[in-house]
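STRUCTURE:
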């Protein structure tokens, strides 16, 4: 197979992996050299926008099975937008500390990538969202479906449920259900039965 190398070592590992993964998926369907060139140029433009460059092509290693990880270029775009909107990062840019702002933004994206990769279910409530992992570990923030981290998780294919659509009389019953970190699938079905909107299909989330 053909492997593209991101040469800038400062590029967030998640960005580097997503570029390779995205281009690799394109290569699986291309049949003309023009298509291949388009794939290369797309990756180079994206990498250049985030202080990196895809400039080397290595040929031949045996094809490996593609990982079932949901971090795509679209997911990373959303996470970078979220990082750039953070008030302190904006303040750094206003003070002219652009390099420091970029360093912090990369770190923020990297941390969110790790959380999304390990997430089992996403809960969107009234003004707050929670990204659960197995057990009692989670990441929480303010906002709803319009939050960029929430949109990134949905784009990555993390199963989610929105409890803002549940009637008030069913909210107590929701609390009696399984804990999301222990039983994600059971939580989704329980929430669905009470009137929550459930996103367990990435295509469905995109349509919404």
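SEQUENCE:
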């Amino acid at each position: 197979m053909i492997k593209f190398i991101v040469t800038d070592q400062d590029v967030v590992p998640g960005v580097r992996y997503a570029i390779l993964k995205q281009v690799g998926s394109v290569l699986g369907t291309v049949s003309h050299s023009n298509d291949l060139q388009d794939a290369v140029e797309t990756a180079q433009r994206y990498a250049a926008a985030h202080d990196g460059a895809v400039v080397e092509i290595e040929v031949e290693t045996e094809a490996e099975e593609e990982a079932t990880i949901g971090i795509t270029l679209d997911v990373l775009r959303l996470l970078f937008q979220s990082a750039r909107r953070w008030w302190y990062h904006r303040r750094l840019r206003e003070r002219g500390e652009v390099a420091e702002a970029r360093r912090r933004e990369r770190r923020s994206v990297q941390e969110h990538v790790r959380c999304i990769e390990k997430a089992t279910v996403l809960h969107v409530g009234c003004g707050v969202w929670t990204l659960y992992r197995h057990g009692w570990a989670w990441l929480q923030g303010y906002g709803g479906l319009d939050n960029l981290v929430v949109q990134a998780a949905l784009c990555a294919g993390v199963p989610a449920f929105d409890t803002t659509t549940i009637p008030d009389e069913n909210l107590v019953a929701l609390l009696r259900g399984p804990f999301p970190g222990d039983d994600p699938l059971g939580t989704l079905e329980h929430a669905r039965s009470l009137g929550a909107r459930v996103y367990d299909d990435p295509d469905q989330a995109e349509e919404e």
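REMARK: The longest strand covers residues 54-59.
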